[in-house]
Amino acid sequence: MSFRNYKEKIDEGDTVILYLCNNFFAIEVKPEIKNKKGELIENVYQTTFGALKVRNLIGSNYGSKVELSKGWGHILQPTPELWSLTLPHRTQIIYTPDISMILLQLDLVPGCVVVEAGTGSGSLTHALIRRVRPHGHVYTFDFHDHRAKVAQEEFQEHGLADFVTARHRDVLAEGFGDDLKEKADAVFLDLPKPWTGVPHAVAAIKNDGGRFCSFSPCIEQVQRTCLTLEQQGFQDISTMEVLQSEIKVSRKTVPVRDLSFLKHKGSENPVEEKPSSEKTYVVGTWPHSTPGHTGYLTVATLPPSFIRRKLKLTKSEECNGNPIEEDKNLDEAMAVDENKF
Amino acid sequence: MCDNTVKVGEYIVIQKQNYKKLHKFNKPNSSVSVGKDTLNLNGIEGTKFFSTFKMISRGKKRSKEFDLELTAEAVNLIEEIGLKVSGADNRNIYDDGRSQKLSASEISDLTYDSTKASDIVETLITNSNTFHNKTEFSQEKYLKKKEKKYFEYIQILRPNLRIITEILYRLDSSKVQGIRIDTLSQIITLSNISNEGNHLLYDSGSNGLLAAALLSAMGSEAKGKLVHMHPGNMSQKQALLAMNFDSEQFNKCLSVNVYSALRQVYQGCDTHTQKETVLESECNLKRKATDEIEHEIKIPKLDDSQIPIKDHDTDESNVAKKKPKWHFDNIAASEVLKNKVDSLVIASKEDPQNIFLELLPFVKPGRQFVIYYTVAEPLQNLYMILKSTSNVAALRLTCNWMRNYQILPERTHPEVMMNGSSGFLLTGYVLK
Predict the structure, then answer these.
(1) Which of A106, A200, A287, B269 has CA 20 to 30 A from A277's CA?
(2) Are strands A210-216 and A277-285 parallel, antiparallel or unpaired?
(3) A66 in contact with chain B, both atoms CB, cutoff 8 A
(4) For residue A197, is the peptide bond before it cis, meaning its omega torsion is within 30 degrees of 0?
C-alpha cells in the first residue's frame, strides 16, 4: 500500500526501496516467504553488505537507516521513478526521461482520463496514475493475458486500484471498447503497429479533443504513424527524442609541469624532468557508454470534433483499411491529390 | 477542461501555422500583433477554443491590419494548388535571381488584391520559369515556404503548460533560466509532485514557469500547498497567470519572500524591514507600496482612521486593507515549513549551495529534492560537498539532450537546427 499516500512508518505488505551504495532494490515487506518447497521461511534479503531481516523493517520510519550484517542502508518510500528502476521486467520498459516528456506532452493534470496500451510492466502506468489522481483515471490494456493479470495484482498490492483499470484486450484489433467512447483526454500507444491504433484513439478521445502520443523504437513505425495521424484529422504532429546523460563528479588532481625555468641556465645538473606540483579541480566527466536511443515520441493534438478534418484516402487505402502496407505504397500515399475522386 | 470558450480577462494562445503567441485578452475590441500583422480581436469572445479565423485585410493598401472572421477550416495550399508537372532533379536549374517574372512591388499589389493565398501563389507559380522543372519535393518545399508567408488563418488555443513552456523558451530562454521543456518535465516527475503533500519551491526568476508547472501537477483539489519562495517581490509571473488557474487552485500556491518566510519561521515576526529593499537588486513600485502599508501598521498614529479598526481582527475586509495578503501567506507558509514538506525544488540564479543547505532541514526524511542550474560547475561543487554529508543519498547530476524530427515520406531526417542547452539537474533523497 506504500504507493498510495505519503507515509511515516513501514507497514506489513508495503513495497519499500532499499538504498545501498548508489543502488536501489525493491523489497516486499513480508515477514515470511515461501521457499522452493512451498514451506514458509523467514524472509531474509541478501545484499553485498550482508543480510537484512525484512521483518525488522515493520514499524521503522521511511528515510531511516537499516543495519545489515556487514554495513547499512536506507529505506525509502517508493515513487514511480524508483519503481521504474527496481521493478521486475516482464517487457522492455520506458524510463523516467521519456516518461516525464510523455506526461507533459499529453497535457495531463489531476482529473484527466488517460488510455494506455500496452501495459507492459507498468512502468509508465505508475507515473500516469500519480499525475491524474485522485479524480482522474488510467485505463490500461495489454493483449498478453498473464501480463495484464500481473499488472492488475500489482496495482492492487500497491494500493492504486482506485485509480486504474487494467484489462486484457487486443486494442489494435478491437478498439478500446464502447465504454471508453469519447471519454479520454489523452491516448498513449507503445505498440508495434501504432498506426492501426490511431482510428481507435480518435473514437476514444473526447468530443472536445485531446492529445495523442506514440512511442516507437523504429523510424519506419513513426513514418506510418505520422501519415495516419494526418489522415485522421490530427494537428500539430511532432516527433522528437529525449536522452539523459549522467555526469560523474569527482575531484581530479592533475600534475603541473613547470617549463618556464628552462629560459635560464640553472644550477641544478642534471635537470629534474618531472612534474613539480599539483592542481586540484572538481570535474564532471561524461560517461563512456551511455544510452543512445530508446524510442521516438510522436505527439499530436486531436482538435474538437467541430473543427476536425479528414484527408480523403486513396481508393486502395480505403479498401485495405490500413494507411500503408509496404514501403512502396508510401509514394502512392504522397500522390493523394491526383487520386481524389 | 470544463468550459471551452474564449473569455475576456483570460490568457489565450494565437497560433498561425507553427508560430504561437501568448496574449492576455483584456478587452473585446482590442488588437494584438502577430509577426508583422496587427489583428483586431473583435468577435472572438465566446467562441470555442480551436476556432479558426480568416484574416481579412482592413482598408488601406499595404497595411498590415486585419479583422477576424470565423471560418470552418483553414485551406491547405498544397491541396488547393495540386502539383502536376515536375522535374527529376536540379541539374538544369540555375539560381540567377531571375526565375520570378513579377517584381517585388507587383507582388505586394497582388497580395493586397487577392483574397486567397492560393490565388497569390498560383500567380507566382505561373510567372516562374523554374517551378515546373523542380522536383516534386522541391515544389512542396516551395509551397510550404509560400504558405508560411501568405497564410491568412489563425487559430485560438487555450494556454496550457506545454504551450506556455515552448513559447517562453523560444521567446527568450534567459527569462525562464534556460529551462527547456524536457528538463521542466523531469523537474516535475523527479520531485514526485502530485495532489498529495506539501511542496517547497525556491525560484529566483523563471517568470512563474516553475510555480505554474508544480501547481498544475498538484491540481485544483490538491490536499497540500506549494510554498513558493522567491527573493524580492514577485513582479514577473507571466507563466503562472497565463495558466488561467481558478482561484481555488491559485490559492494553493503561497508566494512568499524568502527572507520574510524564514524570519517568520525562526523568529516569529511578520514584517518586511527597510533593510531588504537595499539588499535586493530588483527595484519596483509594488515593493515600495507594501513598505508604506507596513509603516502604517507600525505607526498607527500616522493615520487616525485606522486606529479603531486595528483591534478588530475578525473584520476581514478591513484587516485585509490593514494587513496585506502577503502577511497571511507568510504565516501560512511558515506553518507548512514547520511541519516539513514532501519535496524541494530549487531553480536559482544565486549559488545553489546556501539556498539548498538552508532549506534542506524543512524536508521530511525519505523525500526527494531537485536543484536546477543553468551551468554545471556550481552543482558539481555542491555535489562534492553533499557527498561527504550523511543526510543526503543517491546524488545524481544529469543533463538532457533533445532532438526533433521532420517526418515526411522519403524525406525523414532529424531537423536541421537543434537546441543544445537545457541546463543541469542535481537530484537526490533526504535521509534521516
Answers:
(1) A287
(2) unpaired
(3) no
(4) no
C-alpha cell at A330: 508510401
C-alpha cell, B332: 501560512
Q: How far apart are CA A161 and CA A209, in angstroms?
A: 27
Please give the residue that has the higher pLDDT: either B94 or A208. A208
- Rounded to an integer, what distance in angstroms lies between the CA atom of residue B345 and that of residue B257? 16
Chain centroid, CA B412 distance in Å: 30
Question: What is the per-residue pLDDT across A269-317, written as a single tens digit (0 to 9) for each?
Answer: 667 788 889 999 999 999 999 899 999 999 999 999 988 877 655 444 4
> Residue B369 in 3-state DSSP?
strand
State the Cα–Cα distance between residues A65 and B432, nearest whole angstrom. 7
Q: How far apart are CA B351 and CA B349, in angstroms?
A: 7
Specify whether the CB–CB gap between A209 and A300 falls below 8 A.
no
The Cα–Cα gap between A41 and A242 comes to 45
Residues 318-357 of B with CB under 8 A from A: 342
What distance in Å separates the CA atoms of residue B197 and residue A4, rounded to the nearest whole number? Answer: 12
Best probe of the B interface among A1, A2, A6, A126, by most B CBs < 10 A, is A6
Q: Which helix (H) or strand (E) holds B54?
A: strand B52-57
Q: Measure the CA–CA gap between A154 and A160, rounded to whole angstroms.
A: 9
C-alpha cell at B272: 518586511
**Length of chain B in residues, anyone?**
432
Residues 122-181 of A with CB under 8 A from B: 127, 130-131, 133-135
Q: Which residues pair with B53 in a beta bridge?
A: B70, B154
Helices (H) and strands (E) in chain A, counts: 9, 16
Instruction: State the smallest CA–CA distance between residue A308 and chain B in angstroms.
Output: 9
pTM for the complete prediction?
A: 0.86
ipTM of predicted assembly, 2 dp: 0.89
The C-alpha atoms of residue B339 and residue A121 are separated, in whole angstroms, by 36
The answer to whether A254 faces chain B, any CB pair under 8 Å, is no
pLDDT tens digits, A226-249: 999 999 999 999 999 999 999 999
